[in-house]
Amino acid sequence: MIAQRRLGQSDIFFTPIAMGCWPITGITSIDVSESDSLATLEAAFEAGINCFDTAYCYGYAGESERMIARALGRVRDRIVIATKGGIHWDEQHKQVRDARPATLKAQCDESLRRLGTDRVELYYLHAPDPQVPVAESAGAIKELITAGKVRCAGASNFTVEQLAEFHQVCPLSAYQPHFNMLQREIEDSQLPWCREQGVSALVYWPLMKGLLAGKLPREHVFAEMDGRRKYPMFSGDEFQRNQDFIDKLRKLAMDIGKSVAEIVLNWTIQRPGISAALCGAKRPQQIRENAATLSWSLSSEQIDLIDRWIVERGPTVSGMPTVMQPAKSS
Ligand SMILES: NC(=O)c1ccc[n+]([C@@H]2O[C@H](COP(=O)([O-])OP(=O)(O)OC[C@H]3O[C@@H](n4cnc5c(N)ncnc54)[C@H](OP(=O)(O)O)[C@@H]3O)[C@@H](O)[C@H]2O)c1
Predict the structure, then answer these.
(1) Distance CA 222, CA 235 (A)
(2) What is the position in ligand 1's atom list of the atom closest to the CA of 55?
(3) Secondary structure of 207-227 in the HEC alphabet?
(4) CB 298 within 8 Å of CB 267
């Protein structure tokens, strides 16, 4: 088993495969049902995952946090819950950034109510609010720690400068950026900073929204409500080049008797400085497959081979928004 990892300098440990609890809200994923979502959360825990990543804005009315409470309330003491504040939905279902101290404190209280708990292990500022100095938002999260509502602080979608500014006011335990085989910008900047400061990096989109799970055929037609339609990675030449890259992973997967998703996740959690891959899933079988990667490790030769294929793939046109948007708003 790949060992659990320490959250920053705390005494909290988490599995390097964590469950991302965004797809279960159904805002950008299609064919999501409440029963599948609850079963997926339970399956994640049964498969050995102890870390669940959610946010105040996952679901228009906190559905993700509420489902975590329903599915996992009975094992609350055995899981690590990370949630986030600073983004909410307006009445037109558009995302609004608001990281004023009073908003963060009110959102944290609401998240705790939804989660049916009096304290979360990790509370992130979801994204910097251009209208509010980072230090002010950091001060609010520090107060939440002092009040005993939050054990550790995190920041998501930050530059290095913003991380340093936050860290001065409220020591960070975790950073949450996007990162995957095809999007590695943080390796030159934020990741070295996190390693120097002892801050854990828990990364989102390790499977690039399912692209790197290797199950989308080349000719896949995305349904109108599928949020992936608008990302360059999923269309035209970019999509075909990504498929060429995935074909190489598929061959390796067949040779060693693993799935493409397992290989991608295994590579991710073995990258220096990456503490966990936050894996979104909406079906029990997906999260079981992703959790299976905890029980084996790619060899250094296999990692070198994959690194060569990534170089051969070349730079990608990612064009990603920093935070998720509902399919309807684009
Ligand atoms: N901090 C932030 O701003 C931020 C932003 C985005 C995400 N996140 C966090 O990171 C998590 C991960 O991001 P994500 O959920 O958007 O993307 P992801 O983990 O890259 O991809 C999740 C999607 O991949 C597919 N999938 C997963 N496992 C699979 C498997 N074994 N086989 C086939 N398909 C599989 C499923 O989609 P289909 O079944 O539809 O193909 C699933 O919905 C989120 O849930 C959230 O917790 C944070």
Answers:
(1) 10
(2) 47
(3) CHHHHHHCCCCCCCCCCCCCH
(4) yes
- Look up 175 and say whether it is catalytic: no
pLDDT > 70? residue 320: no
pLDDT of 323 over the 90 cut: no
Model pLDDT, residue 327: 36
Q: Would you list the DSSP string of 35-83? A: HHHHHHHHHHHHTT--EEE--TTSSTTSHHHHHHHHHHGGGGGG-EEEE
- Look up residue 271 and give its two tokens: 């990258």
pLDDT at 309: 98
CA distance to 53, 119, 121, per residue, from 147 (Å):
22, 10, 13
pLDDT at 233: 93
> Does 125 contact ligand 1 (Cβ within 6 A)?
no
Residue 248 CB neighbours (<10 A): 17
Alpha-carbon gap, residue 290 to 49, rounded angstroms: 10
In whole angstroms, what is the distance from residue 70 CA to residue 225 CA? 27
pTM for the predicted model, two decimal places: 0.95
Q: Which residue, judged by its Cα, is nearest atom 3 of ligand 1?
A: 323
Q: Is the CB of 86 under 6 A from ligand 1?
A: no
Q: Which domains does the chain have, with CATH numbers?
A: 5-213+260-297 (3.20.20.100)
Among 24, 111, 207, the mutation site with the greatest number of ligand 1 atoms within 8 A of its Cβ is: 207
Stated length of the chain: 330
Tokens 């908003």 locate to 103
